[in-house]
Write a structure and sequence with these properties.
mainly alpha, 335 residues, globular
Length: 335
């Protein structure tokens, strides 16, 4: 293996080479500590009920557990980042398959998982040609395998669920993993994770403060126009500000392009949330799972990332590319 590729994949000694990576890590830890103190203080002063206090504690504890699981792989190296995204993809797909009943079609479910595995290999190999070929190949395989049941009734639904499951949880999320092929992937991936999650927080706070008009009452009754606009302004400002340091000296580092990046993160994040809400309303459930106390399932927590990852990937790639100076086809040796 090329020494440059080995260092990017497994080298953790350069985890904090970028000041942005260091300060994002410090900011996240500080935010958790400050939130814990505020929750304790409000409860001690009688400002929160026992029920609300317990709910807030659950959320903070969940974030305290998720934070090292999210940031740890990024700091350890590209290989761990790619593996973490692959595991997240499989777990999110599992929740989707169980919620929709798609898990009953085992042969099709196996095809989806194989597609996720193939996507992960293409990412780790830094083989972009294979990466873009996997979706049509997986769809072709789903269409063929579904015929073998010899059950024309429900064929469209079975194939459609399989295609949606793979594209959203295998391929869309896979774009986040592919960013790890860039030499400066750590601050980029951390910026996306941080701002996507804060976009939800901004929408919630702005909605509680200014929100009156519902935008999609049938899909997500708590979503308001004030919350959406507040998140749009705050997230765009945050992405533009931090992004200036992340992309300093690159083709992305102009005011207009950074604002565009911020708008994409906020808009795609909110639509990702609404998309999963639409799926849940369609099948008549409140949460996709119960694996994260105070949040629901993994898919309930990371739904905003589904549309952000591919949109941001191709936006940034258009102006500066990803991993253009890195060895390609690391394992297959065709680069």
């Amino acid at each position: 293996m090329d020494p440059i590729a080995r260092e990017r994949l497994f080298g953790f000694r350069h985890a904090f080479d970028s000041p942005v990576t260091f300060w994002i890590t410090i900011a996240v830890i500080a935010a958790l500590l400050i939130a814990s103190v505020i929750i304790w203080y409000l409860h001690a002063r009688g400002r929160t009920s026992d029920k609300l206090h317990d709910e807030l504690v659950k959320r903070v504890v969940s974030w305290a557990v998720m934070t090292p699981l999210l940031l740890g792989p990024v700091l350890l190296g590209a290989a761990w980042t790619i593996l973490a995204v692959a595991i997240l993809s499989v777990l999110c797909y599992r929740e989707f398959a169980r919620a929709t009943g798609f898990f009953r079609y085992r042969s099709l479910s196996i095809v989806v998982v194989l597609g996720i595995i193939a996507t992960t290999f293409a990412i780790a190999d830094h083989w972009y040609g294979f990466f873009v070929a996997i979706p049509p190949l997986t769809i072709v395989l789903l269409a063929m395998v579904a015929i073998l049941r010899d059950e024309p009734r429900g064929y469209t639904q079975r194939v459609g669920l399989g295609v949606i499951g793979f594209l959203l949880f295998g391929y869309c999320l896979g774009h986040l993993g592919y960013m790890a092929n860039d030499a400066d992937f750590r601050p980029i991936v951390m910026l996306i994770i941080l701002t996507v999650e804060l976009n939800d927080v901004f929408a919630y706070i702005a909605g509680k403060t200014f929100g009156h008009r519902k935008i999609t009452p049938q899909t997500s009754p708590n979503k308001t126009l004030g919350g959406a606009l507040g998140a749009l302004v705050l997230t765009t400002t945050l992405v533009s500000t931090v992004g200036h340091f992340v992309f300093a000296g690159s083709g992305v580092d102009t005011a207009v392009k950074l604002i565009g990046l911020g708008l994409i993160v906020s808009v795609a994040g909110q639509f990702g949330d609404l998309m999963v809400s639409s799926i849940k309303r369609d099948i008549g459930i409140k949460d996709m799972g119960a694996s994260i106390p105070g949040h629901g399932g993994l898919l309930d927590r990371f739904d905003s990332m589904l549309l952000v990852a591919p949109a941001v990937f191709h936006y940034i790639a258009f102006f500066r590319g990803f991993g253009l100076d890195q060895p390609t086809r690391i394992f297959t040796g065709g680069g």
